[in-house]
Amino acid sequence: MKKKLVRVFGQRLREIREGLRMTQTAFAGKMGMSNSYLCDMESGHVGPGLYTLYRITKFYNISPLYLVHGIEPVFLDQEKEEEKKKEVEHPLQQAPEPEPLDFGEDTTRIREMLSYFKRSPVVKYALLGFFSKFVIENKAIIEEDIKKNEEKTNPGPNV
Hints:
Number of strands: 0
CATH class of the largest domain: Mainly Alpha
Largest sheet: none
Number of domains: 2
Radius of gyration: 20 Å
Order of helices and strands: HHHHHHHH
Distance between the termini: 50 Å
């Protein structure tokens, strides 16, 4: 599994670099990494460390979810453009008031996690990567759990 993930990551990275019309030397040089390290990543021999993944995604504005899991959009600017289009389509629509954060006994830990998530891109990308992988691998279990929880909290009418 890990070898496949590293290989696919490398293929995606190479496709992006080539799409940017950059040589390995130019791409690696701008990142301050060796050409051989980039070559090893693109060929699937090594995976990036968390800091390298962070630098690549920030420097070239690439979605880490795309690099790791293939979830589009490829570039983060695409997400912003799509959000702007939605805003233009519904200019009079106001955002609803956010619900208070209440996760019972886990509220304090979740607030702490969200604080780190907001302030640290490294934490954000690590959590998003883990979350995306977890959802992809456990979708059926998650949906069943949500359904059971909704049935408990919203019982149907008594007949």
